[in-house]
């Protein structure tokens, strides 16, 4: 078991890295890895390696994943997409279920009973597959919110619907099944509200009162999620997913001071869990289940992709403010993931034992749809986003925090070479000059919740925190580092007497920007003395050696813009210049004009 566990974890993380490195959908690689390790090579057989405990572990992992998804749901985003989201998670669910039942029965040849269960399972479009796709697609904020909210809200709704159908099928021969289903639904909702919402509020209150130390907050939350899941399931079977999702939503909107750190911790855990689950579930497929696939089943899967989902979305969003482009995209994008696979694997054996022989097709049908949607939607989302013009407004923005004559001049120079720059500051007057030059500005505190709502931070790819307060610069860099990466947050050099004893340590600040140790105050002083921002293009005939030979000794190299067009702030560990690079430098005035304070310009 040890070898199998280590192999799955290592393979999962390698797939995640490959997906990041080559900009591929991670779920595609994870699913392929599971097939290779499982039915193709026979290296791992999870049912044998992990035994009966695999189902329980899978359910607990899914609960944590749904809690983390709920934690990311912000009510301000729901306000932007409220009408469409309500339709997709209510009318849309009913329509998808009804049309799916017809598709499974008339095209797939399944019985009405198994068709009803399969249709309920496939209502789910979960966060485990939607979130990774959204990270790569660069959708605009509104469209991404539609898909994110639908995926996370529909996860517990779809599971609960599947559980109710499952219970109905099992109870149908034992008396009043309808009454049992209604009672189960009421009990599930009540238990989820009391346990999920109550425990979330209690934990949040404990955090605010200081009853739980910082180092125990994240572990306490994980323990509470598992406890809520187990207790909910004990009170009402399969209500745990709904309860943990509700717990995440409540905690995510309590504005807790420690929430950012906990959210990052949960994201790290979730990456490991998703990697593990997808590899395990695909490795659990057997050659027998693969051989059970036949042409009516394949036609049914294609029907779910090309008919059921588009039709359900189109009908559900009639007379809403949803544009036709959004409707087309949402009608196509509906990848299924861990929750659908886990549900099919949990329900199929019991139904087969209860006499529903065609329940043997549940697992191969669900996994076939998972592979189809992951591959088709994973590789088509980016091109479709561009085709429908639903992407972000630009290829990415540069955020400069702190408006000063020097940063405004820098932003102006970058704007002249087609860089999308925004300057943020808390003082309206300091932004006046930038606005007059046509530079995008944001008036407010970048560390506030309002900034996250208004600035669409997903579209910012690098930050330069250049205010006169180095401690504040460090706070800004630490705030953006988890979103952008530590290698993309920069701040000027910290100057002063006894520097290493009086400033923020290197591990708690951004990367020191620029090729020379030059402070914010010195940058401003040199600009007053006539220094200017200059751009230089590196070509095959004008190489890096030529550039350095003509560069004044005390000049400061600020940034490089490669052929890709995305700016890279320079540090003292600058890379070698290549043909096609544009170098942005801060240079002194010509020697003959040193006594004249010239206006800042951008030489050709």
TrEMBL record:
How does this protein sit in the membrane?
Multi-pass membrane protein
Would the keyword Transport turn up in this protein's UniProt record?
yes
* Occurrences of domain RCK N-terminal (ranges): 398-479
> What is the protein's major site of localization?
membrane
- Where is this protein localized, as stated in its record? Cell membrane
**Transmembrane residues, as ranges?**
26-44, 50-67, 88-106, 112-134, 146-169, 181-203, 268-287, 293-316, 328-349, 361-381
Annotated InterPro entries: Cation/H_exchanger_TM, Na+/solute_symporter_sf, NAD(P)-bd_dom_sf, RCK_N
What are the record keywords, sorted? Antiport, Cell membrane, Ion transport, Membrane, Transmembrane, Transmembrane helix, Transport
Gene3D superfamilies found in the cross-reference section: 1.20.1530.20, NAD(P)-binding Rossmann-like Domain
Q: Where is the Cation/H+ exchanger transmembrane domain?
A: 9-386
Matching entries from Pfam families are given as: Na_H_Exchanger, TrkA_N
Q: Does the keyword Zinc apply?
A: no
Determine the domain of life of the protein's source: Bacteria
Q: What is this protein called?
A: Sodium:proton antiporter
What is the species of this protein? Zhongshania borealis
């Amino acid at each position: 078991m040890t070898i199998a566990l280590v192999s799955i974890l290592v393979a999962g993380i390698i797939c995640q890295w490959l997906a990041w490195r080559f900009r591929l959908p991670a779920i595609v690689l994870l699913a392929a890895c599971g097939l290779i390790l499982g039915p193709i090579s026979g290296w791992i057989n999870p049912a044998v390696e992990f035994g009966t405990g695999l189902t329980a572990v899978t359910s607990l992992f899914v609960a944590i994943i749904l809690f983390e998804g709920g934690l990311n749901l912000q009510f301000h985003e729901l306000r932007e997409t409220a009408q469409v989201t309500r339709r997709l998670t209510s009318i849309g669910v009913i329509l998808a279920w009804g049309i799916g039942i017809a598709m499974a029965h008339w095209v797939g040849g399944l019985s009405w009973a198994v068709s009803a269960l399969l249709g309920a399972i496939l209502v789910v479009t979960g966060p485990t597959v939607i979130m990774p796709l959204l990270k790569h697609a660069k959708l605009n904020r509104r469209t991404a919110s539609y898909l994110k909210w639908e995926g996370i809200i529909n996860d517990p709704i779809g599971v609960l619907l599947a559980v109710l159908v499952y219970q109905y099928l099992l109870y149908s021969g034992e008396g009043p099944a309808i009454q049992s289903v209604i009672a189960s639904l009421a009990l599930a909702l009540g238990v989820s509200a009391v346990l999920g919402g109550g425990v979330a509020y209690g934990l949040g209150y404990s955090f605010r009162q200081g009853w739980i130390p910082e180092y125990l907050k994240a572990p306490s939350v994980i323990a509470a999620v598992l406890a809520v899941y187990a207790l909910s399931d004990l009170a009402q079977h399969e209500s745990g997913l709904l309860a943990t999702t509700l717990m995440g939503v409540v905690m995510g909107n309590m504005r807790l001071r420690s929430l950012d750190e906990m959210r990052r911790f949960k994201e790290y855990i979730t990456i490991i869990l998703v990697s593990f689950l997808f590899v395990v579930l695909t490795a659990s497929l057997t050659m027998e289940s693969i051989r059970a696939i036949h042409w009516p089943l394949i036609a049914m899967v294609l029907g779910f992709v090309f008919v059921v989902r588009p039709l359900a979305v189109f009908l559900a969003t009639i007379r809403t403010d949803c544009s036709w482009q959004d409707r087309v995209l949402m009608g196509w994008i509906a990848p299924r993931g861990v929750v659908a696979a886990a549900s099919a694997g949990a329900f199929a054996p019991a139904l087969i034992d209860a006499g529903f022989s065609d329940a043997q097709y549940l697992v191969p049908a669900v996994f076939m749809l998972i592979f189809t949607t992951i591959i088709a939607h994973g590789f088509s989302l980016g091109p479709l986003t561009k085709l429908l013009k639903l992407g972000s407004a630009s290829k990415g923005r540069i955020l400069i925090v702190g408006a000063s004559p020097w940063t405004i001049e820098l932003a102006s120079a970058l704007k002249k070479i087609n860089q999308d720059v925004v300057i943020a500051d808390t003082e309206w007057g300091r932004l006046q000059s930038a606005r007059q030059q046509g530079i995008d500005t944001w008036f407010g505190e970048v560390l506030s919740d309002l900034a996250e709502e208004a600035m669409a931070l997903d579209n910012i790819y690098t930050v330069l925190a250049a205010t006169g307060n180095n401690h504040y610069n460090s706070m800004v860099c630490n705030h953006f580092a988890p979103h952008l990466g530590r290698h993309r947050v920069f701040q000027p050099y910290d100057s002063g007497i006894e520097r290493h004893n009086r400033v923020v340590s290197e591990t708690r600040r951004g990367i020191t920007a620029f090729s020379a140790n030059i402070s914010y105050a010195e940058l401003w002083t040199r600009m007053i003395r006539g220094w200017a921002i200059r751009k230089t293009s590196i070509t095959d005939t004008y190489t890096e050696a030529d550039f350095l030979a003509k560069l004044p000794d005390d000049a400061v190299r600020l940034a490089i813009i490669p052929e890709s067009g995305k700016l890279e702030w320079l540090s003292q560990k600058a890379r070698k210049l290549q043909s096609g690079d544009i170098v942005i430098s801060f240079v002194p005035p010509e020697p003959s004009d040193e006594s004249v304070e010239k206006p800042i310009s951008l030489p050709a």
